[in-house]
Amino acid sequence: MGFIFTFLKGTGVIEGLALKMQTTGGVCFSTETFEKMKRLRLLQLDHVQLAGDYGHLPKQLRWVHWKAFSLTHLPENFYQENIVALT
Description:
The chain is mainly β. Helix content is about 5%, strand content about 25%. The protein has 1 helix and 6 strands, in the order αββββββ. The protein has one helix at about 1-5; strands at about 15-20, 30, 40-45, 50, 65, 85.
C-alpha cells in the first residue's frame, strides 16, 4: 500500500493521515512513504509498523497517535520539537 503514496500528485498537500489496521503485524510501511508529505501535521497509526529512517517523517507533525507502537523507545532521529500531543 505504501507505493500508492509515491505516485499521488497531491502528496505534498496532505495535512492529516489515519492508517488503521485491525491487528499488529503484517503491515509495515517505509518511513520514506512520508518524506514528500511536508505539510503533514496529524498522524494516526493503529497497529502499523514503520521501517527505515524516522528522520523522513515530516518536521511539521503536531499531533501523533500511535496505537500498538512496536518499538521500546522513540528513535533518536524522530523530530519531536513541534509535536504538542503524542499518544
